[in-house]
Amino acid sequence: MDNNPTWGQCLCGAVKFRISGEFESFFLCHCSRCRKDSGSAHSANLFSSSAELIWVSGEANIKTFHLPGSRHMKSFCSDCGSALPVSQPEIGLIVVPAGSLDSQFHMRPNAHICCSSRANWDNDLASIERINGFPR
To answer: What is the residue-wise DSSP string for 43-61?
Structure first.
């Protein structure tokens, strides 16, 4: 395992975790399931088949939803609803929501995936106004 683990937590701080090991890929998924999970244009998830996920605190607060008939899973804090990592040992994979991490990491997304499912409003977003902070 690596000497610089990656740390993360939920928004309320009840659930804390550590990832030891490397991420192999980072995808921005536009499928309808990931859009529902994130409430946004896409999910941003890191994937590893070799890292170790360690729950540091709050494991009793973790709820996991498994969509019947699929491999789609989402873990979240039962107090604040923040997305949390999911371990899928049956397929040898850990999926970590990038926004749940507190540690800096320098991996850029590999690709936008499931773009055929992209929301109709999720086009040319780079061209819209950028505001530092809340709009007035």
So the answer is: EEEEEESS-EEEEEE-GGG
Strands in 93-97's sheet, in edge-to-edge order, are 86-88, 93-97, 43-48, 25-29, 111-113
**Whole-prediction pTM:** 0.91
If you count them, how many residues does the chain have? Answer: 136
Is the predicted pLDDT of residue 41 greater than 70, yes or no?
Answer: yes
Mean pLDDT of 97-126: 93
Alpha-carbon dihedral sign for residues 36, 37, 42, 48: negative
Residue 3 has pLDDT above 80, yes or no: no
How do strand 111-113 and strand 25-29 relate by DSSP bridges? Answer: parallel
The domains located in the chain, with CATH, are 6-118 (2.170.150.70)
Nearest in space to 100 (alpha carbons), one of 20, 16, 24: 16
Cα gap 131→102, rounded to integer Å: 23
